[in-house]
Amino acid sequence: MAIIAWLVTASIQSGEVTLASTGTNEAMLVGNLFAILGSGSICVIVSLCGNEVYDYESMKDIPLIDDVPVVDDPEASDPEFLAHSRAWINKWGWIGAFVLVVLWPMATVPWGVFSEAVYSLWCSVAFMWGWAGTIVIIILPIYEVRETIYKVVSGLLGLKPLPQVTNGTSTNDVKINKDNV
């Protein structure tokens, strides 16, 4: 559908389908819009036609393979806790989206057309947001599983594994008591 719209637009605009006509901004825009909006529309229509109501409670009946609970903290799977967490996420998600999509751009309206200095500042702020997002999305999860990554890499390379820490003491620590001194 999107390819047809792209090629038809190129043909209507220039009278022929060539590399130059398919590379125009308008032809590519129409093709991309049909691809994005068309697939979204198909998903929504098919979902609404199916009209299935899934009972998520049935997921609790799925047996665990190794009898290890999925959630370590039973309070974290409490329906009241989950409802409160969902409300908090929705509240702050909508507030954050409103601030970033509406308020932040509206704050720049009085500035009019950006001067070079203001545009540089704007780009710097966007660049810092990008780096902050990169750190949060990519680096923090890697930092969180750094011990597992080290174990895997040390196992592959035959390096000495890190000492295991149990209850705040390493298994390699020498325990000294009064009888041994």
What attributes does this structure have?
about 180 residues, mainly alpha, two-stranded antiparallel ribbon, 6 helices, extended
Task: Describe the overall structure.
The protein has 181 residues and is mainly α. The chain has a domain of 47 residues. Strand 1 and strand 2 form a beta hairpin. Helix 1 packs antiparallel against helix 3. The protein is extended, with a radius of gyration of 28 Å. The C terminus is likely disordered.
Please write out the topology.
Blueprint: H1 2-14, H2 19-22, H3 25-50, H4 79-106, H5 116-144, H6 146-157, E1 165-166, E2 169-170
Antiparallel strand pairs: 1-2
Helix pairs in contact: 1-3
Helix content: 55-70%
Given helix and strand content, the structural type is mainly alpha
How large is the radius of gyration? 28 Å
- How many runs of DSSP E, i.e. beta strands? 2
Main sheet attributes: strand count, strand direction, barrel closure: 2 strands, antiparallel
Q: Please tell me what the overall shape is.
A: extended
* Widest beta sheet: strand line-up: 1-2
The residue ranges in which pLDDT falls below 50 over 5 or more consecutive positions are: 169-181
Mean pLDDT: 84
Strand content: under 5%
* Run of helices and strands: HHHHHHEE
SS element count, helices:
6
Rounded to the nearest angstrom, the distance between the terminal CA atoms is 83 Å
